[in-house]
Amino acid sequence: MIDVVVLLFLKERKRDIEREREMKRDSNNNMTLPCVSVMTRSVWSYNLESEFELIRSVIALYPFISMDMEFPGVVFQSHPAFRQPQNNYAVMKANVDSMHLIQVGLTFSDRHGNLPTFGTSNCFIWEFNFCEFDVTQHPHAPHSIALLQRQGIDFDKNRRFGVNIVRFAELMMFSGLLCNNNIQWIAFHSAYDFGYMVKILSQRFFYMQPFLPPNLCDFLQLVKFFFGYKVYDVKHLIKFCPNLHGGLDKVSESLGLDNSCRRSHHASSDSLVTLHVFNKIKTLYFHSEFDLPKHACVLYGLEIIVAN
After folding, report:
1. CATH code, 123
2. Could you tell me the pTM of the whole model?
3. Between vectors from CA 244 to CA 307 and to CA 151, what angle results, nearest 5°?
4. Is the CB of residue 62 less than 8 Å from the CB of residue 115?
């Protein structure tokens, strides 16, 4: 049963939509300074609430949200002979149910690819660091943890100063990011990204469902419930782009994008690259207004069509 607070949230969406419309009208009189550099807003327990206030203030103007996550790798593997969508989901569920999220990156943009500036010469993206994962106790893939440590992630700092995942789920719900049909969500190879998000949201708002549902179709319905019908997995989209294949780095390089300032395996930086790749392939390969929507809500590796 849906928590009462979720129902109250849904009833208040009309008021939020009106506020968003007012912000859009006001934005016509605002001047945007040229963006000199992209700055990461690192979010910890002490600034979580204030950062969500900032995010709430930009949603109406920047409704394209690219998401990336860092998690402790995978401890359950799939067999190459059994990689159909339902089997892929079973393996993903086993991993997500048994592990903890480390980092979430969010990049907000408008339809032209512009990022929030808050009236400065810099653009801003967000990186949330979580406190739940304990490398000394919790399941993880050692090579994945070693890679994240080499990239600068401090697991001890996360434990001491990181965001509480339950509070993060609450603020995600009441910020206007979720259950909002005006928002488009973008990710790359996103089954695990949405898996972790659905898990933490279900744990908070569906008390009888602390883990991912056993059935793939039920999981995809939850993705639509929380994130709407404009969810795009770039890894799935490149299947329809000639000569594009591989991971995020390779696709970005093939498209000739400049990632010289990227911090690889940091969620915020990867979410920004994902946005750039999405915008580039949309321009090159998806020309009409009907080309993209037919690929909405299809997650790479979990490619089944679920009735609305």
Report:
1. 3.30.420.10
2. 0.87
3. 95
4. yes
